[in-house]
């Protein structure tokens, strides 16, 4: 068995026995152990009591985090004419129609968010098997199929986070950077948890949130007390 590095051992020792702590304590612990040479992302993982195989138990939504994510978001827009010009003016990184579809089909996906005007959906629909598994498929429910291209691009660039319950009912997202002020991270965490709580589907029965864990990109995770994380 490979030996653990000093940093890994120290992190594990610091996290040992820390279970269901407050958001503030979790943030302090994670920040103190985020010692990578890059600015680590602070990530949240929420286990939900839903079965995503059933349509009435799907959890999906979007939240504009109050302090942003700290991540530079690359945005692709399917649009033509005036709407393409609007997307460019708003700061979209990639704009196209059939040409963009062909690029994606060729295996190049150089963006983090995909937006489309409604008239582009017959083209975008052909990319369902490519964009769907990556949670990049434009969807009117989260505002990425819209005629208001300017607002959608600006929201994506401004720190808007989409979330979707994956297999096993887990919702995962980046909610900031280790360099963020602790209070701002805590605010982002509670805003995200609140958004997931409000997205509770009609088919969910029993306990909805069963576990909340926080971690940094390179560090171990710590579980957070659910009622504390859900407190406004």
UniProtKB/TrEMBL annotation:
Question: Where are the membrane-spanning stretches?
Answer: none
Keywords, A to Z, come to: Repressor, Ribonucleoprotein, Ribosomal protein, RNA-binding, rRNA-binding, Translation regulation, tRNA-binding
The record's annotation in CDD domains points to: Ribosomal_L1
Q: Does the keyword tRNA-binding apply?
A: yes
Top-level lineage group: Bacteria
Q: Which GO terms describe its molecular function?
A: rRNA binding; structural constituent of ribosome; tRNA binding
Task: Kindly list the GO CC terms recorded for this protein.
Answer: cytosolic large ribosomal subunit
According to the UniProt entry, the coiled-coil residues are none
Q: Does the keyword section mention Zinc-finger?
A: no
Q: Name one GO biological process term.
A: regulation of translation
* InterPro entries according to UniProt: Ribosom_uL1_bac-type, Ribosomal_uL1, Ribosomal_uL1-like, Ribosomal_uL1/biogenesis, Ribosomal_uL1_3-a/b-sand, Ribosomal_uL1_CS
On assembly, the entry states:
Part of the 50S ribosomal subunit.
The family note in this entry says:
Belongs to the universal ribosomal protein uL1 family.
Q: What function is annotated for this protein?
A: Protein L1 is also a translational repressor protein, it controls the translation of the L11 operon by binding to its mRNA.
What protein name is recorded for this chain?
Answer: Large ribosomal subunit protein uL1
Which gene underlies this protein?
Answer: rplA
């Amino acid at each position: 068995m490979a030996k653990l590095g000093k940093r890994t051992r120290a992190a594990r020792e610091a996290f040992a026995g820390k279970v269901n702590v407050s958001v503030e304590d979790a943030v302090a612990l994670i920040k103190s152990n985020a010692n990578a040479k890059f600015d680590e992302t602070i990530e949240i993982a929420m286990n939900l009591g839903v079965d995503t195989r059933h349509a009435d138990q799907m959890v999906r939504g979007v939240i504009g985090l109050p302090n942003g994510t700290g991540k530079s978001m690359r945005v692709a827009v399917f649009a033509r004419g005036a709407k393409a010009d609007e997307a460019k003016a708003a700061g979209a990184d990639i704009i196209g129609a059939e040409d963009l579809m062909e690029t994606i089909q060729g295996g190049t996906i150089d963006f983090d968010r995909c937006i489309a005007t409604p008239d582009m959906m017959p083209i975008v629909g052909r990319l369902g098997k490519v964009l769907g598994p990556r949670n990049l498929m434009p969807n009117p429910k989260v505002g990425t199929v819209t005629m208001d291209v300017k607002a959608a691009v600006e929201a994506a660039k401004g720190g808007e986070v989409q979330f979707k319950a994956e297999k096993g009912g887990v919702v995962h997202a980046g909610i900031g950077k280790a360099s963020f002020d602790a209070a701002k991270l805590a605010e982002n965490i509670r805003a995200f948890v609140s958004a997931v709580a409000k997205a509770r589907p009609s088919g969910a029965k029993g306990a909805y949130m069963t576990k909340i864990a926080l971690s940094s990109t390179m560090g171990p995770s710590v579980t957070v007390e659910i009622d504390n994380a859900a407190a406004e």
